[in-house]
Amino acid sequence: SQQGEEDPQALSIQEGENATMNCSYKTSINNLQWYRQNSGRGLVHLILIRSNEREKHSGRLRVTLDTSKKSSSLLITASRAADTASYFCATEGRNYGQNFVFGPGTRLSVLP
Amino acid sequence: GAGVSQSPRYKVAKRGQDVALRCDPISGHVSLFWYQQALGQGPEFLTYFQNEAQLDKSGLPSDRFFAERPEGSVSTLKIQRTQQEDSAVYLCASSLGGTVHEQFFGPGTRLTVL
Predict the structure, then answer these.
(1) Taking CB atoms and an 8 Å cutoff, what residues of chain A touch B56?
(2) How far apart are the first and last CA of chain A?
(3) Looking at CA atoms only, how far is residue A17 from chain B in angstroms?
(4) Long-range CB contacts (within 8 A, 24+) of B43-52
């Protein structure tokens, strides 16, 4: 079964708006990563947040992690058409067989 | 610099055939991962190598799937007696080492089993 579940499944916004995607997971983790996938560039790593961190920034990206709620959020500010892609969270679990689990993804469309 | 490369990019197999998918990781990367991605879904973990050692193969769906990395560099994912449900994109990723480094993904091999 999927460890990570992204929400919403699909999101459509106008260029310049902010986009927020959420990820929930079930078991204890070592870290959580966000990836982007589009047809042009394949899967690309965006940001990693460790279990002892609560927030991390990278350019227009802001990731939060709440281990008590087993959830994370990815915020993309001032979105651009080039941000159109699918976004996945991936968790690294603590036990054998719980490693590197991706969720089903959020499909983001940024309209010009 | 060269990224992760995979070959072939596309493979069509008749049901029952064996296939071999190749992954060339980034030079010097210790860890190598294989994933299976169905259309519209996220990648599903198959197996993980650290150098030549296969440390986690919990995601391999059946004993028809076999992966190796004999010299700690190039890896091959072999699927025996392919079935239609094996049709998917097979992704390979590598990372510098351990399990906390970002993974660099290859373009994938799209396998279609007829």
Answers:
(1) 96-97, 99
(2) 36
(3) 25
(4) B43/A43, B43/A88, B43/A102, B43/B91, B44/A102, B45/A99, B45/A100, B45/A101, B45/A102, B46/B77, B46/B90, B47/B77, B48/A99, B48/A100, B49/B75, B50/B97
Work out the minimum CA distance from B114 to partner chain A, whole angstroms.
Answer: 24
Q: Are B43 and A104 an interchain contact pair (Cβ–Cβ within 8 Å)?
A: no
Name the amino acid, one letter, at B39.
Answer: L
- Give the whole-angstrom CA distance, residue B50 versus residue B54: 6
The 10s digit of each residue's pLDDT in A32-65 is 999 999 876 789 999 999 999 999 999 999 999 9
Q: How confident is the model at residue A92 (pLDDT cuts 50, 70, 90)?
A: confident
Closest partner CB to B42 (pick from A33, A44, A104) = A104
